[in-house]
Amino acid sequence: MTATLVFWFDSPPHVELGALTSLARIWPADVKVLHFEETRSERRSLGWSNYSDEGWPLDWRRVAKVDVDAILRAFPPGDANHHVFNGLTGNVGNALLQATRVAPLAGFTVMSERPGSYGPLARRVARRLGIRAKHKWLRRKFEPSVSLLLPLGRLGVETFQSYGWPTHKMAPFMYCPPEQATNPTFPSIEVPEDVVRVLYVGRLCFTTKGTDTLLRAWELRTVKGATLDIVGDYGPDAEAVHQWAPRSDHVRMRGTVPTRDLLNVIQDFDLVVVPSAFDGWNVTVNLALRAGVPVLATPDSVSADLVHFSGAGEIFPTGDSDALASSLDKAVSDPAVLQAWTRRAEAYRDRVSPQTVGAYLAGCLEFSLGVAKRRPTPPWEAPQ
Fold first, then answer.
1. Residues 6 or more apart from 187 whose CB is under 8 A from it?
2. Contacts of 182 (CB under 8 A, 6+ apart)
3. Rounded CA gap, 160 and 131, in Å?
4. C-alpha–C-alpha distance, residues 118 and 207, integer Å
5. What is the CATH number of the domain that holds 209?
6. What is the pTM of this model?
7. Tens digits of per-residue pLDDT, 285-343?
8. PANTHER family in the record, alphabetically (predicted)?
9. Are residue 326 and residue 336 in the same domain, yes or no?
10. 335 contacts 324 by C-beta, under 8 angstroms
11. Residue-wise burial string across 99-126, b where 16 or more C-beta atoms lie within 10 A, e elsewhere
């Protein structure tokens, strides 16, 4: 018997939706998506929606905390219904707790980012110690009932391994947003052919997105011949970035772009910078490589895994503006370097398609269910 899949989310999935819809198209039973909250207003303003209204091949339902017991009775965990929980805490964590009480040996699947630890050094250290203690406790509570944990990226796997999760119960996962055919109203700006067009996409936030690292690196460059477009007109440090941009060399603030248009927008650029200070998985890297555009990223983007395995760009140390400036200079001064990165991005793009990631997720769930004897190899990690 093939199990019905029941996914639990705090809010409607977006960055996971490409993989989920591809999974639903190949999974031989129903795929249900339950969520406790609606999409936040800030995200809706950026083009995110509740998606359940848009005809995706998934059975969507908003639920309340009081509904969990009834849902577990309607879809009892076991061979016929496999429950997948997006996280170990919050409403989803509480639902997982209730599920383990109903069926402690059912063998659940859990997807999770690494827990957040960012900000000033003292706060990071204190928060990291608290997180470590909490997640060691969560591991002891849930690990006997979980057949597979899907942390995001290799950094996620290493983090959860440090909490005591066994490696044979983990497989790396990645966010994979949906791709839709769109006609973005994003005006192109003509530049000479020998000018390298650099793009930053995301919140303007120094603490998590590392936008200040990019600003400093742009000033430290020694090789001119590049432009920087900044897409993302929001975030706690938006005012500081807006004040900086007019005083800097060839920088343009381009406002916001609906998330569904980003893939098409990125195709007009030569290089994408992802200077994350702390992310669970920054999907800008996925989108850039899907567009055939190389990336400069930090390890703390987590999605820098894709840069490592593709060779389509460089990984620079988190917060190191000098290193980022050096990578930018390399790309601008030597066209052969940028061309090689671009060829690798184009060759790699299918490794991170929704269809590929959805098929990998299906393989992971078959392993979690005991149908497959081996965990699948992440397709984005296979040699080129």
1. none
2. 258, 260, 261, 264
3. 11
4. 7
5. 3.40.50.2000
6. 0.93
7. 999 999 999 999 999 999 999 999 999 999 999 999 999 999 999 999 999 999 999 99
8. D-INOSITOL 3-PHOSPHATE GLYCOSYLTRANSFERASE, GLYCOSYLTRANSFERASE
9. yes
10. no
11. bbeebeebbbbbbbbbbebbeeeeeeee
pLDDT at 258: 83
Q: Are residues 149 and 247 in the same domain?
A: no
Q: Quick check: 35 and 11 in contact, CB under 8 A?
A: yes
Q: Is 205 helix (H, G, I), strand (E, B) or coil?
A: coil
Examine the domain organization and report whether 133 and 235 are in the same domain: no
Residue 147 lies in a domain: yes
Between CA 278 and CA 177 the distance in angstroms is: 19
User: Is the same domain home to 213 and 286?
Assistant: yes
Find the domain containing 241 and state its range. Answer: 196-351
Which pair of tokens denotes residue 89? Answer: 């805490």
Q: Report the range of poorest mean pLDDT among 34-43, 89-98, 212-221.
A: 34-43
- For residue 49, being part of any structural domain is answered with yes
Residue that wins the pLDDT comparison between 144 and 233: 144
Letter for the amino acid at 13? P
**Which residue, 233, 288, 228, 238, is CA-closest to 264?**
288
Q: What is the CA radius of gyration of the chain?
A: 21
Could you read off the pLDDT of 219-266 as tens digits, one per residue?
999 999 999 999 988 899 999 999 999 999 899 999 988 888 899 999
Q: What is the pLDDT of residue 129?
A: 73
Category of 297 on φ-ψ map: left (φ > 0), alpha (ψ -120 to 50) or beta: beta
CB of 160 closer than 8 Å to CB of 151:
yes
What is the number of structural domains in the chain?
2
Residue 250: which region, alpha, beta or left (left: phi > 0; alpha: psi -120 to 50)? left
